[in-house]
């Protein structure tokens, strides 16, 4: 309850005065962006959301002559500050936000002023399965071992956001195994990484793109991937799945891009078409491969339908 109260307090401060559509400086109601565009990242620099936001911003620029996008990290409230900021930009085509599963899990668990329907869905970039990692000297040797040890002693795990995708994963683990691994929320994958490397926590839930360098260097070891099939990428193919180890937790978070609500239909179409061009480009394929994503793009209303279909399962897990 204390974590929820802190999130609500931070959001209230950040959103003061941003309840309605923004002023003319944000081009509210315009049929396309004019001048610099801002990609909001609702988490700290260095994590998976930050990597995704910067890659998509660069990709959209590469396929749209004259477009200029800068990245603005607005972390806080476990992602809610960034979403609340975008909420105040209603109607403006000058803003995008690098979104992921916290768009669904936050409204399901915290009293925030937004849901996924508050925004304009533009582009689902792909899907990302989480790895459970530990330092090489950790006595925990597998995902199943983490479950077993958590039944007999306190095990701490770092997660990105108290109500984000990593929290969903550990909630599923508690529901399916009864093992209660204590989670410590951080503002992004970079902070979670530092916590496990520094020994403040024993485990961390991180995306492959966030942790591949440390795995290659031997600074961390992967205990499992929370999936029902192994990754086919050579660097990850030897990591066993949670299902293989008898832990029935499978969860893919999405990565995508949303725009403010109440967009002019022509502005929405501008961004959807830009996203389609990016998805057809070598830059998209390079990004997906470099971040070890599952390439499952969806655009506009199709992405909105995906969000609506995914909302229920996420709410069921978070509300347990």
Task: Explain the overall architecture.
With 320 residues, this protein is an alpha/beta fold. It has two domains: 2-11 and 34-128 and 253-318, D-Maltodextrin-Binding Protein, domain 2 (3-Layer(aba) Sandwich); 131-225, Periplasmic binding protein-like II (D-Maltodextrin-Binding Protein, domain 2), CATH 3.40.190.10. The protein is 40% helix and 19% strand. The chain contains eleven helices and eleven strands. The chain has a six-stranded mixed beta sheet with strand order 2-1-3-10-4-11, with helices on both faces. It has a five-stranded mixed beta sheet with strand order 7-6-8-5-9, with helices on both faces. Helix 1 packs parallel to helix 3, helix 2 (48-62) runs antiparallel to helix 10 (282-291) and helix 4 crosses helix 11. The longest helix has 18 residues, at 301-318. Residues 1-24 have low confidence and may be disordered. Belongs to the UPF0065 (bug) family. Residues 1-16 form the signal peptide. Keywords: Signal.
């Amino acid at each position: 309850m204390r974590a929820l109260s802190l999130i609500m307090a931070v959001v209230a401060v950040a959103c003061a005065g941003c309840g309605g559509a923004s002023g003319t400086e944000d081009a509210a109601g315009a049929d396309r962006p004019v001048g610099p565009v801002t990609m909001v990242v609702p988490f700290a620099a260095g994590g998976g959301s930050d990597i995704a936001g910067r890659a998509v911003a660069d990709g959209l620029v590469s396929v749209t002559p004259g477009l200029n996008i800068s990245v603005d990290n607005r972390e806080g409230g476990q992602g809610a500050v960034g979403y609340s900021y975008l909420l105040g930009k209603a109607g403006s085509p000058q803003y995008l936000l690098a979104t992921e599963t916290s768009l669904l899990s936050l409204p399901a668990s915290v009293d925030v002023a937004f849901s996924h329907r508050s925004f304009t869905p533009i582009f689902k970039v792909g899907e990302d399965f989480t790895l459970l990692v530990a330092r090489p000297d950790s006595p925990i040797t597998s995902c199943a071992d983490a479950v077993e040890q958590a039944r007999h002693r306190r095990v701490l795990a770092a997660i990105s956001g108290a109500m984000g995708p990593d929290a969903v994963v550990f909630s599923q683990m508690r529901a399916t195994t009864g093992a209660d691994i204590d989670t410590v929320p951080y503002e992004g994958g970079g902070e979670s990484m530092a916590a496990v490397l520094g020994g403040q926590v024993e485990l961390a839930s991180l995306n492959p793109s966030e942790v591949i360098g440390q795995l290659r260097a031997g600074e961390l070891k992967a205990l499992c991937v929370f999936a029902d099939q192994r990754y086919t990428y050579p660097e990850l193919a030897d990591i066993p799945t949670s299902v293989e180890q008898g832990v029935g937790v499978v969860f893919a978070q999405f990565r995508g891009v949303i725009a403010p609500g109440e967009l002019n239909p022509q502005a929405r179409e501008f961004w959807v078409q830009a996203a389609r061009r990016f998805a057809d480009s070598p830059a998209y394929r390079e990004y997906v491969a470099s971040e070890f994503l599952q390439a499952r793009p969806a655009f506009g209303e199709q992405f909105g339908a995906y969000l609506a279909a995914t909302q229920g399962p996420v709410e069921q897990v978070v509300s347990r």
